[in-house]
Amino acid sequence: MRILLAAVGKLKAGPDRELFERYWGRLQVSGRKVGLASAKTVELAESRAVAPAERKADEAARLQRCIVPGACVVALDETGKALTSAQFAAFVRARCDGGTPELAVLIGGPDGHGAEVLRRADLVLNLGTMTLPHGLARIVLAEQLYRATTILSGHPYHRT
To answer: Is 70 left (phi over 0), alpha (psi -120 to 50) or beta?
Structure first.
């Protein structure tokens, strides 16, 4: 299974990007041990539409074009379900074992996801009840994907 992280907005050079890349690199190495073939990121520019509803619809359409047929879609949203790291790892394992070709994790723009993305999502995921800047959410997500692979491989990184 492949991992795709598609996000609206660019992660600027500096400490945020460096920390994201550290965990993303760890994910790519540890993921091979548990059946993840690759991990890639796609950054999309924020919509220039004037109205929030139009921005969300435009961004949703562009995010959905990144998804391969048969992918399992995880949309980050404040209305989503909160999972423990172990529950998230089990979710990833089930998709990998079930032959899902790609786990597509989508981060919307500042206005959130369009309704089309939320309807298409197999899991709407909440990283916590506090609002996070998009860059920090990306870092947390990369770390949790890495953590999931360590849980699945029995690596001691995750201790309960």
So the answer is: left
Question: Cα-Cα-Cα-Cα dihedral of 48, 20, 42, 72, to 10°?
Answer: -110
pTM: 0.94
Domain boundaries, the chain: 2-153
User: Which tokens hold the place of 159?
Assistant: 């201790």
Q: Which CATH superfamily is domain 2-153 in?
A: SPOUT methyltransferase, trefoil knot domain (3.40.1280.10)
Sheet bearing 123-125, strands edge to edge = 38-44, 2-8, 102-107, 72-81, 123-125
Q: What is the tens place of the pLDDT at every residue in 61-97?
A: 999 999 999 999 999 999 999 999 999 999 999 999 9
